What does this fold into?
Amino acid sequence: MLTVAKKELKLVGLSVKYNLMKEMINRTSFLMNVIFMILNNASFIIQWLILFQLKKDIGGYEMNDVLTLWALTASTFGISHIFFFGAYHLPNLIMNGKLDAFLVQPKNTLLSICSSKSSTSAIGDLIYGYLVIIIFDFSIQRLLLFTYFTVLGGITLTAFSVIVGSSSFLFVRGDILADNLNGAMINFSTYPEGIFKGTVRLLLYTIIPVGIVNYLPILVLREFKAIYLVAVTVFAICLTALAFWVFQKGLKRYSSSNLMSARV
It folds into this structure.
């Protein structure tokens, strides 16, 4: 089992490396994508600086908390889109019967799909997250915890995308549902937890698990609490297992388009 896992992870790494090498053929375009994404994320700091001039805290978050929230959101988004960007194209592959090329490969189908694409601009998101942590509130413990939550968050975002994307096995336009839910994950994760109340707050810890991916890690980064660390870890493992199960169940309903194509 361990040998198989190592083999699959090695194949994922090679696939991502190949994707990035293709993008780096035009190095100017590659660097501009990364730099402009960093600047785009940094521009929102100005917005929050203005808001915090008017109010000491927003939803229980002070400026450093918001910076950490944005850093974590950007870095988890970066990890997911660098290594597993293909997961976000799953609805299109299902709807157009384009999974054939992945089904014939001698490796895990879902991992092959997820690692088939990489977003170069997401490198800027990942870098931005680390720059914020290093510049504004650096400590070795904080950096290690941030890295841990970044990796877990990236895996969880990908698993969530696979689950909602697999709705295309059931619905004709499942891509609309997937796009809206994936967008909601990112949009809600950039706002302090305290501004959400009642039903919306409940949704953010269940259907759209922003609370577990982003808000609990913020609490741990504020003041270390093992229970929250364990909760985030267990949730990431369970959601990933659920993503594989949902995809395999949905695959039984897949209709091939009989396209003659292959992936190297």
Remarks:
- The two ends are 25 Å apart (CA to CA).
